[in-house]
Design brief:
The protein is α+β, with helices and mostly antiparallel strands. It is 47% helix and 20% strand. The strands form three sheets. It has a six-stranded antiparallel sheet, with helices on both faces. A five-stranded antiparallel sheet has the order 4-3-7-6-5, with helices on both faces.
């Protein structure tokens, strides 16, 4: 007996597919179990799941049954289809050998969600595909959509919590630091860890606003960079400072703006980077750079936005530190002598007001 165009055995298989999907706790587990079940249900040689945005960002394409040489082709077909009108899906030819057909086609269906379409579910069918296969795929989509939405929402929540913790840690570290350089060292480590990068640096404008100097740096290039300067109108840093727009550059070596002098001097090979302008109010302070995603992967938009949020904290901390440096030098050196820092709990190198300066202000 058939109901809604499917057999009792197929209905039972759909129930088993739903149960399997509901038990999955992680995105790879959900994709693997569901696609294998869909393969058996629809009698297809291959099935794919393409997602627009997930966490971690590299988990956007899953497949089963595709020959390795076909995977990039199918993935690009999914991406192209996702960017076009999802309600006018076309069958895409796929170079997959099928024993019973000369040609195979990728049939893609949107995974409709409550607010937007999070991705596509696809099956590879022979040239003369059956209507039953289409019916089964349409019935399988809701079984995948709900657990998929739950996992993506949880990952998004965990990602937001992680980013918030990073922001709070950096903010607290800057607020409590006795020495700005030490604080920025720790902040750069946080930035590198947050986006899994190999190196990071803070470039500051000099007082004449003519040159960059590396105020703080972490990574293999640190010994070279901390004594280096270069013109503030050159390189990616100079361009980002002028445009005041943060940017991801995932192919640095082919970017004409790249200032490659320090790669040559240090032996470090810059592959990709995120560059963030450091601005305190209307004052241009410098630039934050994070370099080389570990493993050779590209940086992504979420990582740029997270660093951009941290950049404002860093910029104001540097500006306040520079302002206080001027105050301390003019007050302590002139009013209290050259040995003012001896025995002081807030030495001259500190960027927060020293004890003697605050006490003198109270007496006045």
């Amino acid at each position: 007996m058939q109901e809604s165009g499917i057999s009792a055995a197929e209905a039972l298989s759909l129930l088993e597919l739903a149960e399997t999907a509901s038990r999955a706790q992680a995105l790879p587990d959900l994709a693997e179990s569901f696609l294998h079940g869909l393969e058996r249900l629809v009698q297809t040689p291959a099935a794919v799941l393409y997602l627009e945005a997930t966490a971690p960002p590299d988990q956007t394409f899953f497949q089963t049954g595709l020959p390795p040489e076909t995977v990039p082709i199918v993935r690009s077909q999914c991406a192209a289809q996702f960017q076009s009108d999802l309600n006018k899906a076309k069958l895409q030819p796929v170079p997959i050998p099928l024993s019973h057909s000369k040609e195979a086609y990728l049939s893609l269906s949107p995974l409709h969600g409550p607010q937007k379409v999070p991705g596509l579910l696809g099956v590879v069918l022979p040239e003369h595909r059956s209507d039953t296969a289409r019916v089964l795929v349409n019935k399988a989509i809701p079984l995948l959509a709900y657990p998929l939405r739950q996992i993506i929402d949880r990952l998004e929540y965990e990602r937001q919590i992680s980013n918030l913790n990073i922001y709070l840690n950096v903010s607290s570290m800057i607020a409590q630091a006795l020495d700005l350089r030490d604080a920025l060292e720790a902040v750069l480590y946080f930035c590198m860890e947050a986006v899994t990068a190999e190196a990071a640096s803070v470039l500051l404008l000099d007082y004449e606003k003519q040159n960059f100097r590396f105020y703080s740096a972490e990574g293999p290039t640190k010994p070279v960079l901390l004594t280096a300067t270069f013109p503030a109108d050159q390189g990616l840093a100079g361009n980002i400072l002028q445009t005041q727009q943060s940017e991801i550059i995932n192919d640095v070596q082919h970017d004409p703006r790249f200032y490659g002098k320090f790669d040559g001097e240090s032996g470090f090979h810059t592959r990709n980077m995120i560059v963030i302008p450091l601005t305190a109010g209307e004052e241009k302070i410098g630039v934050l750079e994070v370099l080389n995603k570990v493993g050779g992967a590209p940086f992504n938009e979420e990582e740029r936005l997270m660093l951009q949020n941290l950049a404002e904290e860093i910029a104001f901390a540097i500006r306040n530190g520079k302002m206080f440096e001027v105050v301390v030098k003019s007050y302590c050196k002139q009013r209290q002598g050259l040995n003012t820092c001896k025995g002081c709990k807030r030495p001259l190198g500190s960027w927060t007001p020293c004890v003697k300066y605050r006490e003198a202000s109270i007496e006045v």
